[in-house]
Amino acid sequence: MTKTRTDHKQRALELSIALEITKFQRDAYRDQIEKLEKRLMAADHRAELAEQRLHDSTRMLSNLALQAVSSPARSTATEVLVDGKSILRLNNPINFASHGRIKPPSA
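^ thats the sequence. predicted structure below, dont judge the formating
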């Protein structure tokens, strides 16, 4: 009978230790889950901001492309002879004066 009692006490002690280890691991996993959830929320927030910036950039590029396509072509090219050689001369380059640059000399 003493042996059975000792076995029961030993088994109860082992189960108690196993339960404490399991509780400790559970708490550690809960902490890890909480940290990972916070990181996930931060990553989601960053992704949303990046997506919004991408959308804004895409809209801006689209608007620029539409403006470039819809602006009238004010430049012309003419063929001129210089020292007996035929060259193309660009007259009224687009947006040349709007950037504060000096206008090319007229011939």
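The helical segments are 2-70.
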